[in-house]
Amino acid sequence: MPSIVRHLGAALLAALSLAVQPVASAQPAGIDPQATKLLKASTYFLASQQRFTIETRNTLEVVLKSGQKIQFDHAARMWVQRPDKLRADRFGDLVGQSFYYDGKSLTLFEPGEKTYATVAAPGTLEAMLDMARTKLEIVAPAGDLIYRNAYDILMADVTEGFVVGKGVVEGARCDHLAFRSPNVDWQIWIQEGREPLPRKLVITSRDQAGAPQFSVVVTKWNLKPNVASQTFTFKAPSGATRVEFVPPEQR
User: Fold this and answer.
1) For residues 42 and 101, what is the distance between their CA atoms, to the nearest angstrom?
2) Would residue 170 be called left, alpha or beta, if left means φ above 0 and alpha means ψ between -120 and 50 degrees?
3) pLDDT tens, 125-159?
């Protein structure tokens, strides 16, 4: 990471280089079976959870024409109830919106603008997420991890993968994994123990100028939440205006 204090930044980068180089240089080309074993255990465990909530802190990098990187932060909270319920709230520098899915319809609400759009949706989480992504270009926070077949999705184009080592995220000791596909590098930190939950995800877009990153840090998991059924049902507040989703090709 760049540092405002040049000398401190240089010293830090040198220290990181010394710490990471032996690990990285020791990795052969290809995919380490231990990395896939850890990832599979995590995704299978999350797929087995019928109900959970997750709170995250997210950072998006944007690369200006000058090559300078600018970061934008937002936080999110998500409620998931399999097989057909999801609610997500996002708020931060660039976004303030709520995402409702009740098994029949998908609603996106913009509190700041007091506008909302609703569309009929398929009857499962996976089908709804596919529809939202392909037809509306809407992606739920950490959406790929929600799929029951998350492992297959994450590993679809992976050509390299290895275990970086151990790390600590939000006080939880984790296994740190790194993977590479043709255009994207990504890292994931998975909590040790009986509940191998994802705690951090970093995606680097190598096919874009400046290789911007998107990161998600999980600040809280709750695998036994008390979630009321109305959590997933949108009720338009007084003064809110209904609008229509604009297809991506018309934007």
Assistant:
1) 25
2) left
3) 999 999 999 999 888 767 889 999 999 999 999 99
Q: What is the pLDDT of residue 110?
A: 95
CB atoms within 10 A of CB 202: 16
Cα 115 → chain centroid: 25
- C-alpha closest to that of 44 among 171, 163, 197, 167: 197
pTM above 0.90, yes or no: no
Give the per-residue pLDDT at 140. Answer: 78
Q: Whose CA is closest to 101, among 126, 117, 121?
A: 121
Q: What is the DSSP letter of 31?
A: B
**Beta 115-120 vs 241-242: how paired, if at all?**
parallel
SS3 labels along 149-209: CHHHHHHCCCCEEEEEEEEEECCEEEEEEEEECCCEEEEEEEECCCCCCEEEEEEEECCCC
Question: At a CB cut-off of 8 Å and minimum separation 6, what does 104 contact?
Answer: 120, 121, 123
Pairing of strands 105-110, 213-222: unpaired
The SS3 assignment for 88 reads: strand
Whether 56 and 217 have beta carbons less than 8 Å apart is answered as yes
